Amino acid sequence: MAPAEDLLICPDCGRTIPLPADAKANDLVECPDCAGILFRLLETNGQLHWTWIQMVSCPGTEMLVDIVHGTPEGTVYHCNGRPYILTYAFGSYALEEPPQPV
């Protein structure tokens, strides 16, 4: 469990978000001011820290995939056994089908 006084500061809008007293590793917290920006609480060597993630829909299944912010464009993700290419435009990620051979 995390101390209640711990705070998360959204790197996009700067809003201070209190860490829930019962927060634990793998919990998700959404910034109330930024659409689609989430943070996952991780534990490393007994210390809790946040990772900025964005959720994107898989084009073939509509399943949500969490993408760690800063993942390079062109990274390949597999949904339901099919490959999709990660793109980044206008501040958000998307998964697209790879180009078909001609």
Description:
With 102 residues, this protein is mostly beta strands. Helices cover 0% and strands 49% of the residues. It has no helices and 9 strands. It has strands at residues 7-9, 16-18, 28-30, 37-44, 47-57, 64-68, 76-79, 82-89, 92-96. The strands form 3 sheets. Strands 3-4-5-6 form a 4-stranded antiparallel sheet, with no helix packed on it. The protein is elongated. Mean pLDDT is 82; it is low at 1-5.
Question: Which structural category do the helix and sheet elements fall into?
Answer: mainly beta
Oligomer classification: single chain
Give the helix tally. Answer: 0
The biggest sheet, with number of strands, parallel, antiparallel or mixed sense and barrel status, is: 4 strands, antiparallel
Tell me the strand percentage band: over 45%
**Adjacency order of strands in the biggest sheet:** 3-4-5-6
Could you spell the SSE succession in H and E letters?
EEEEEEEEE
Distance between the termini: 54 Å
**What general form does the structure show?**
elongated
**Number of E strands:** 9
Low-confidence stretches: 1-5
Roughly what is the average pLDDT, rounded to an integer? Answer: 82
Give the % helix.
Answer: under 10%
What Rg do the Cα atoms give? 16 Å
